[in-house]
Amino acid sequence: MSVLVVGSVALDTVKTPFGEVKEALGGSATYFALSANHYTPVSMVAVVGSDFPKKHLDIFKKKRIDTRGLEIGKGKTFRWKGYYEYDLNQAHTQKTELNVFRAFRPKIPKEYEKIEYIFLANIDPQLQLSVLKQIKRPKLVLCDTMNYWIEKKRRELLLILKEVDILLLNDSEARELTGKHSLFKASRRILRMGPRITIIKKGEHGALMWSENFHFAIPGYPLEDINDPTGAGDSFAGGFLGFLAYTGDLSEENMRKAMVFGSVMASYNVEDFSIKRLERLKDKEIIERYREFKRMTHFEDLNKGAIE
Amino acid sequence: MSVLVVGSVALDTVKTPFGEVKEALGGSATYFALSANHYTPVSMVAVVGSDFPKKHLDIFKKKRIDTRGLEIGKGKTFRWKGYYEYDLNQAHTQKTELNVFRAFRPKIPKEYEKIEYIFLANIDPQLQLSVLKQIKRPKLVLCDTMNYWIEKKRRELLLILKEVDILLLNDSEARELTGKHSLFKASRRILRMGPRITIIKKGEHGALMWSENFHFAIPGYPLEDINDPTGAGDSFAGGFLGFLAYTGDLSEENMRKAMVFGSVMASYNVEDFSIKRLERLKDKEIIERYREFKRMTHFEDLNKGAIE
Fold it and tell me: Does A290 contact B296 at a Cβ distance shorter than 8 Å?
């Protein structure tokens, strides 16, 4: 089954200790789409400007991402400029030019209305709410957010949280949203705000998934080289939701697998700048890293009576 | 089989956002011993001053820790004063009074010479070397260190690394020792320095174990409350080596289990100040948390052909 992402398509200028790119293809919808499309068809709602390079549109086309919901606005494409130091969990923003993104009002094409797996990438919670009003009975809504909305649009954010199944956010955002330092307490608090599952991303330190019934934790995949962490969270979301939509199975066991696929996609994405690694990624490599993840984290349970 | 620890016994004055203690029982040998003795008999080599409170000696006695190697020196006991802010991975030292620890020259009692499982806690690598000269054919030597020795006694540290089986250190120490930011690269570099296994502790973010043949990663155990991180690393070492000595099994499978027991002990230790939690910890609780760790981290491997 296909997935729908509503988010940003951007031109990113990024510098890390390992290199830099100028006006490279980026944005939450981009990373999500290029990750999820390894699993299942992806439809995209976003906006770019009239200056958006054709070569980037060609990437979407080549990857058979459905861009009927990608609006070409009057004006320039959203641009982000930032850098990372050795702490690759921390992005430093130098410049954000919203451009056409400022007036973005997501319009869901008729053909997308029945898509059942939805990713509301990190945009204004008011716009996230407007998306849900245009969708018919989704099976699963995954929602991302960021500190800016937690601070500036808390009321709207709390409204959208009542409507989504899973909230995806990073550790500092979880702490800011809940006022709880312990991620254990923060997760529990978020579940009371609406979502039945919370996923907390911890960058290179892995991720946690929390529900009333179970907790799941995975470490980060230890990488030889991390070149550019941009888009790791959205690549994670793409692997996670893409796998769930592909299998149509929302059992706890399958959710745990989806977390691993999410981590696999994020771990590949950060190996190169922009979407380069996702673009050339082979399905075989996904399977290989999943299995390596399993080998790397596996340990035996205790037999009855052990050390007792 | 029993384990031997050579390290410090100290009086710690510690403040965290959640409380404080004054001149509480601490030190690497103390935390290790009170953790490992849940698994196997522990013998200790350390030094305290003539001011060392009898109530602390009584704790060792009550826990049946063999203190024939605990010297009572002329002078005052080693004292450490420090605090933690919300980033509990980072200890801030306010005062270190070495006192009798300054002249500490570990003497291994005749009765200890044949102990086969050795923990060289974080002391001067020259002293660590002198310990190994006094021991007969150990089966496993686990060695800790810290930034101070990496900077001040690098030559001696490199000598001891050639003699130990496992080096245990935290992420920033691994980076400093090897000059490699990637923990993947740092681990590989350490293996070339001598140890056949490296364990990198990442505090609340879990731990990695690395050898030529396998990699193992576990996330941190998500805790509702962390009150005092002091001694987490030595509690980890106690669970890890205590379990290995108890089972006498150095297979990869058992090493993985030992990592989980180490994490369980560290996760309990940080729930209360000083050694209070380890002191009242029940074996049943260790088993419970191990099993919870398994439930929390488990996911199914892929069947042949999945998504392929």
Answer: no
Residues 6+ apart with CB under 8 A from A197: A165, A166, A167, A191, A209, A210, A211, A255
- Amino acid A153 reads K
pLDDT in tens, B193-252: 999 999 999 999 999 999 999 999 999 999 888 999 999 999 999 999 999 999 999 999
> Would you call B296 and A217 a contact, using CB atoms and an 8 Å cutoff?
yes
Burial classification of residue A83, based on how many CB atoms lie within 10 Å of its CB (0-12 exposed, 13-18 middle, 19 or more buried): middle
pLDDT for A306 equals 52
Distances (CA, A) of A302 to A226, B221, B290: 36, 17, 8
CA of A219 to nearest chain B CA: how many angstroms apart?
5
**In which band, very low, low, confident or very high, does the pLDDT at B306 lie, cut at 50, 70 and 90?**
low
Provide the whole-model pTM. Answer: 0.94
Distance CA A160, CA A126 (A): 8
Identify which of B217, B222, B283 has the shortest CB distance to residue A183: B222
pLDDT recorded at residue B305: 52
Q: What are the C-alpha distances in Å from A210 to residues A71, A198, A200, A266?
A: 36, 5, 8, 19
Quick one: pLDDT at residue A69?
97
Give the sign of the dihedral formed by CA B141, CA B145, CA B149, CA B155.
positive
Q: Which 8-state DSSP code applies to residue A236? A: H
Pairing of strands A10-16, A79-84: parallel
State phi, psi for B209 to the nearest 5 degrees: -125, 135
User: A203 to chain B: nearest residue by CA?
Assistant: B205
Here the tokens at position B154 are 């690098």
CA distance B192 to B194: 6
| Site from A297, A303, A304, A308 to mutate, B interface, most B CB atoms within 10 angstroms | A297
CB B22 within 8 A of CB B261: no
What is the total residue count of chain B?
308
Spatial contact of B108 and B45, defined as CB atoms under 8 Å apart: yes
Q: What token pair was written down for B115?
A: 């102990």
pLDDT digits (tens, 9 = 90+) for A182-196: 999 999 999 999 999
